[in-house]
Amino acid sequence: MSNATPPPAQPVTASGPSAAPTNPPPSQIRLQRVLVPVDFSAPAAKALEYARAFAAQFQAGLLLLHVVELSYVGTGLGEMEAPLLEAELRQNAAQQLERLVAGLGAGGSAPRSELRLGRPWQEICAVAKEQQVDLIVLGTHGYTGLKHVVLGSTAERVVRYAPCPVLVVREREHEFVRPDAAG
After folding, report:
1. pLDDT for res 129
2. From CA 137, how far away is CA 81, in angstroms rounded?
3. What sections of the chain are H helices per DSSP?
């Protein structure tokens, strides 16, 4: 004989084999922080739709990240012009990011935003680690061939080095986010 007590019965409001318990089991997935890197492109906008839907579904915080990548190789910029270019790039990116966040409107917790300077894949992974992000939702341009070799793949590197799961969203793919679900 066992001394174990049986589990309490689940309350049921309807009868019959198709009746569902009134309290469905909690989700096995817990998301508290969702990171969506944005470069203001169409693939990033699509990733933002998905990230908003996840954040709403799981009542998670949403963090938008933009990384300004500087590359002075072959630009012909002098020592004085490079800092001016950097300041202008940062200011323009900050304004775009502010407009993007403001355009998200109310609905759940207010999204946060962050602007970084560096290589996008490295900064995305660093922010994910620093902020203890549970999920990164990332748009991809889907470059192949020479463009992929020359420009590299931020998404590929993020998937490889991120400290958390990464959902990569292509601009043209099967939709699973309802238009009204993103908030």
Report:
1. 98
2. 35
3. 42-58, 81-103, 120-130, 145-151, 154-161
- Which CATH superfamily includes the segment(s) 33-170? HUPs (3.40.50.620)
* Closest by CA position to 155, among listed 144, 143, 139, 134: 139
* Residue linked to tokens 């309290």: 23
Q: What is the pTM of this model?
A: 0.74
**Per-domain residue ranges of the chain:** 33-170
Lowest pLDDT segment from 1-15, 120-134, 155-169: 1-15
From the list 57, 66, 63, the residue with the least C-alpha distance to 35 is: 63
Query: Which amino acid is it at 79?
Result: E
CB 6: neighbour CB atoms within 10 A? 5
Residue 14: what pLDDT?
45
pLDDT of residue 61: 94
Query: Per this entry, what is the length of the chain?
Result: 183
Taking residues 142-164, report their average pLDDT: 75
Burial label for 29, CB within 10 Å (0-12, 13-18, 19+), is exposed
- Side-chain half-sphere of 169: how many Cα atoms within 13 Å? 23
**Strand 61-68 to 112-117 pairing:** parallel
Burial class (CB in 10 A: 0-12, 13-18, 19+), 78: exposed
Cα 2 from Cα 53, distance rounded (Å)? 47
